[in-house]
Structures are given as structure tokens and as C-alpha cells.
Design a protein that fits this description.
single chain; alpha+beta; eight-stranded antiparallel β-barrel; 9 strands
Length: about 200
């Protein structure tokens, strides 16, 4: 078990949407060179009580909290913990605090990923583990990071596109320039909570 030092963090602002097709905006994005192509399998821990971003990728527990939403509805997510499995009582307490649920950890011991999910997540009516496969394509446009990704979330296919940068003005201007402004701005967590019936 190891809690990873986060170091200096430069918070980024994000605009994201989900759907099957992003029309002319997608065509505009693909006019640029794809600079990054990554596949990953992840497990998100969703909560009925809270909407923070809790996920596990490559045996790494990663928690991000929504720090701020600005006037353009851009979201700033801030990492608060990264830890490798097996995780201990203190790391589990951080997970459940972010999830907004109370769990008795009095007798908790270091635990590996599969046992953690079985014992503490899938047995809790307020929590749900959701498997997500991502195939992400990254672009640099006007200095901002732009992404298109093909997803399988809890067995259902869907797509997402996002614009993010530390400069919120750059993000919203690029969203407008690409023609994405007419789409709903919605985070990964809110979209998944809707898909599993945790949010209207």
C-alpha cells in the first residue's frame, strides 16, 4: 500500500458532453492532428449521496472533487488522493468521505481491489461500481487539450468530447469556436449517475 504524493497541481477547467455524434464540431476537431491515442479500463465508484469523481485505473485509487463551477458552467476538478492497492483504513475513509456515505471501518485491514469492491462497494445500496472502457483520442487546439473518446459504460456504448485547460477563458472560447456550445455540458460522473439511475 502506498499513498502517492500529489505534488504541485495546476487545476484545469473542463467542458464535456456526451452523445453519439457531435456533428460539425467533431469534423472541426478532426481537422487537427491527433497527438494521443490511449485505451484504458477503469472502474468508477458512483454514489447516490455525492457526485465526486472516484475511480480505479491500473490498481490506482484516484479521487477528484469538484472545487468550482464558473459562470460559463465550466468545472474545475481537483485531485485529493491517489493510492495504490492494497489500500488501508485511512485511504478507505477518504473514499467514503468523498462518496458521502458512512461505513464502519473499525476493524478494517489492508485490502486488495477485488475484495474492496465486493465488501464495501457492491454490498452498499448507496454505491455502485461501474466498469468503463475508454478509447481516447487527444488533440491540441489553440493551446488547449481537446478529446474525443469512444466509451463502454456498464456495457453501454456512448461517446464523449471535452475541452480543458488551466485558462477558463481559453476553454469557453474554444468550445464556441468548435461549435460545441449547443451541447449539454455534463461531467463523467453526472452522465454515469444518470445511466445507472442515481440521478434524474
Amino acid at each position: 500500500m502506498a499513498k502517492i504524493e500529489l505534488g504541485k497541481i495546476i487545476p484545469r477547467w473542463e467542458w464535456r458532453t456526451f452523445g453519439e455524434d457531435f456533428g460539425e464540431a467533431e469534423a472541426k476537431i478532426k481537422e487537427h492532428e491527433c497527438t494521443r491515442e490511449v485505451e484504458s479500463s477503469e472502474v468508477y465508484i458512483l454514489s447516490k449521496k455525492n457526485g465526486e469523481n472516484i475511480k480505479v485505473r491500473d490498481t490506482l485509487m484516484d479521487i477528484k472533487v469538484l472545487r468550482e463551477v464558473n459562470g460559463d458552467t465550466l468545472e474545475q476538478w481537483f485531485p485529493i488522493m491517489k493510492a495504490t492497492f492494497p489500500i488501508g483504513k485511512d485511504e478507505m475513509a477518504e473514499v467514503f468521505k468523498a462518496a458521502g456515505v458512512e461505513v464502519d471501518l473499525t476493524d478494517a485491514e489492508d485490502i486488495d481491489f477485488n475484495a474492496f469492491i465486493a465488501k464495501y462497494v457492491d454490498s452498499n445500496p448507496n454505491l455502485k461500481s461501474v466498469g468503463v472502457f475508454k478509447k481516447r483520442y487527444g488533440y491540441m487546439i489553440d493551446g488547449a487539450t481537446v478529446e474525443i473518446a469512444d466509451l463502454t459504460i456498464d456495457g453501454k456504448a456512448i461517446r464523449t468530447t471535452a475541452v480543458e485547460d488551466a485558462d477558463p477563458e481559453l476553454v469557453i472560447n474554444l468550445v464556441k469556436k468548435l461549435g460545441l456550445i449547443g451541447f449539454e455540458n455534463i461531467s463523467y460522473i453526472k452522465a454515469m449517475r444518470r445511466m445507472v439511475g442515481f440521478e434524474d
